[in-house]
Amino acid sequence: MSPPAARIGLRQLLMVLGDSLVEVQAAPAGLDVEIREVSLLDPEDPPTAQPGELVLVIGARGRAAFPALRAAGRDGAAAVVVKLDGPGQAAVLSEAAAEAGVALLSLRSEARWEQVHALARAALDDAPPGEPGMGAEEGDLFSLAQTTAILTSGIVSIEDAANRVLAYSRTTDSDEADDLRRRSILGWQGPEGYLAKLREWGVFQHLHSSDEVIGIDSHPELGIRRRLAVAIRSGDRQLGTIWVQEGSIPLSERSRQALLGAARVAALHLVRRRRELSDDVTLTRTLLAGLLDGSTGPQPLATHLGFDATRPAAVLGFSYGTTEAYATAEGAVVPELTHSEVTNLVSVHIAARHRSALVTQVDPRIYVLLPQLPRGIDTDTLRGWTQEITDAARRHLGLPLRGSVGCLVPGLGDVPESRREADRILDAMVSAGVSVAVAALPDIQAEVLVSEILTLLAARPEIRDPRLTALLSHDSRHQGRLAETLLTYLNSFGDIRAAAAQLHVHPNTLRYRLRRAEQLTGLDLSRPDQRLLAMLQLRLPPTG
Questions:
Q1: pLDDT: is 327 or 351 the higher one?
Q2: How many other C-beta atoms can be found within 10 angstroms of the C-beta atom of residue 446?
Q3: Cα distances (Å, whole numbers) of residue 149 to 211, 281, 453
Q4: How far is CA 106 from CA 89, 97, 116, in A?
Q5: End-to-end Cα, the chain, rounded Å
Q6: How far apart are alpha carbons 425 and 451 in whole angstroms?
Q7: Other beta carbons within 10 Å of 495
Q8: E strand or H helix that includes residue 511
Q9: How far is residue 379 from each of residues 104, 392, 417, measured CA to CA in Å?
Q10: To which H or E segment does residue 386 belong?
Q11: Sign of the torsion angle spanned by Cα atoms 172, 174, 175, 177
Q12: How many CB atoms lie under 10 A from the CB of residue 494?
C-alpha cells in the first residue's frame, strides 16, 4: 500500500505565500479546499488539471485564461493562479472562476512564476500526510520566520547560501518594509547592487567566518533600514542567513539572543529540507520520546547525537492550557495558536542558551531535554531560562505559558525521573491554581504533594469519609453551602470572622452553618483527624 499523499489547505498556503505575492480574487468553495499537487500550465499545453491541483497558468492573461479556469473546474482542481494586466480583469476572471467552481488567485506582476512554484512545492513537501490544513508544522521555515519576527519586533527573511529567499515573516503595514525587503521578496533574491555593498562592507566575510550576530546600519540614501544578520550553520558549513529588518519600532533588546536561537533551529530545518538527514531527524524524535517516557535507554540517543550520557541533564516542561482561576488572576486569554508557534518560541529561546537542547511536543505539553549540562549548573539557572521563555510567550504571544523545571540528574539514564518531576509540577500548577508561571519542586512542594494526595483520594472512594460525601450530596439537593462554609472555616484556621468575611456572611450565620453541618453528618470538628480529612476531601472537584 502506498503512503498517503501530503496535502495542505488553501488557507495555510495563502499564509505561506503572503499578500506580497498573491491575492485571493475568488473562492467559491471557501479557503479550506485541499491542495495535493502543484503544476505549471504553459500556453502551449492543453488546458487540463488533476483533482486537488494548484494550477499556475503562465502567459495567459485576461480572457485568455478562461479555458484554463473551465478545465480546472471541470477536472476538480483546487485553485488557479494567474497574472492580471489591469484591475478590470479581476472582476471578469472572478466571475468565470465562480462559475467554474474553482478558487482564483492573482499573482503580483513583479513576481516570478518559479518562485511561487518553489514556495508552494516546499509548503506541500513540509505538510505531513493526513488531515488537510496541517502545513504549518514544526519544520516550516515560514512559521519560524514569523516567530523570530515576534521575538525581535522586526521583519524577518531567511535565505540560503546563494542569498535566495526561502521564507519571510508577514507584515501588516507595507510601510514597514524597506525597498530592499520588497525587491528581495518579489525578485526572490537580494538585488545585486545591495549584495555588492554587503561584500564591500565585509558583511558576508563576517557571516562566513563567525556565529555571532552582525549589525548593519541604516542607509536612507539607499532606501535601507537598520538590520541584524546571523549565519545558519551545520558544523563548519554555512547553510544560509537570517536577516531581521527594523520596522516602524526599534528592535527588541533581546533581538541578538533570539536571532542566535533562531539560527540554530533554522539549521535543523535546512538540513531536513536538503534531505541530507531526514531519516536522522525522525530517528532523533523517536529516541527522544522513548527516553522521556523511559521506554528507551539513554545509549541509543547518546550514540546517535554524540552526547556524553554521563554528564548532568534535566527536563523542562511547558503547558499552555489554562484554568479559569489562572486566566482570571492573570487577566489573560489564551489565543488560538498553532503548536508550531509555541514550539518555535521555546526552541529559539532555549537554543540560544544551550546548543544541545532538544525540543519535542507530547500533547498537550512541550518538553525540553537539556543534555550535557555543565557540572556546576544549578536549578536557579534553569529556572531563569524557563522564566525567559514564559515571559517571551506572554510578551509576544499574549500566552500564559507555564513552565516547570525537572530535577537535575547525573546522566541521560535518569532523564525519565526529571521528566516525571516536571510533570508533577505542571499537574499541581493546574489543579491547585498556582499563580506563578515557573516553578521547580522546592518552590511548590506542598502544593505538589497535596495535589497528588487529592488524586489518590479521587481514585479511591473507599478511603473517603462517607459523612463528608453525604454533606456534599445534601448541598447538591438543597442548593446549600454547608460544605463550602466548612472548608473556608478550616482554611482560615478556625477564625470565624476571617471565614465569614471571605464568604460575605455574618459570623453568626457561619456559626449556624457549622453547627448544622455537624448535626447532619455527625462530624466532630474538635477532633484534629476529622478536620484534616475534611480539609482534604472537600478540596476534591465536584463529581456528577
A1: 351
A2: 10
A3: 20, 25, 44
A4: 10, 12, 11
A5: 47
A6: 10
A7: 13
A8: helix 507-521
A9: 55, 20, 15
A10: helix 379-397
A11: positive
A12: 12
Length of the chain: 544
Give Cα 315 distance to the centre of its chain.
18
The pLDDT, as a whole number, for residue 15 is 67
Q: What would the pLDDT profile of 73-115 be if each residue is shown by its tens digit?
A: 999 999 999 988 766 778 888 888 988 999 999 888 777 787 7
Report the C-alpha gap between 106 and 510 in whole angstroms.
71
Q: Which of 139-143, 230-234, 292-296, 361-365 has the lowest mean pLDDT?
A: 139-143
Q: CA angle 214-218-222, nearest 5°? A: 120
User: Phi and psi of 201, rounded to 5°?
Assistant: -80, -5
CA quadruple 304, 308, 310, 315: dihedral sign: negative
Contact of 61 with 79, CB cutoff 8 Å: no
> Among 147, 155, 153, 191, which residue's Cα sits nearest to residue 175?
155
Cell reading at 35: 491542495
E-only strand ranges, 217-323: 227-234, 237-246, 314-319
Q: pLDDT band for position 5 (50/70/90)?
A: low
The amino acid occupying position 45 is D
Cell of 33: 479546499
Residue 441, all three cell numbers:
519542586
| Cβ contacts of 16 within 8 Å, gap of 6 or more | 119, 120, 123, 135, 136, 140, 142
Query: DSSP character for 337?
Result: -
Please name the residues in contact with 493: beta carbons below 8 A apart, sequence gap of 6 or more: none
Alpha carbon separation from 510 to 67, 226, 472 (Å, rounded): 81, 66, 17
CB 451, CB 428: distance < 8 Å:
yes
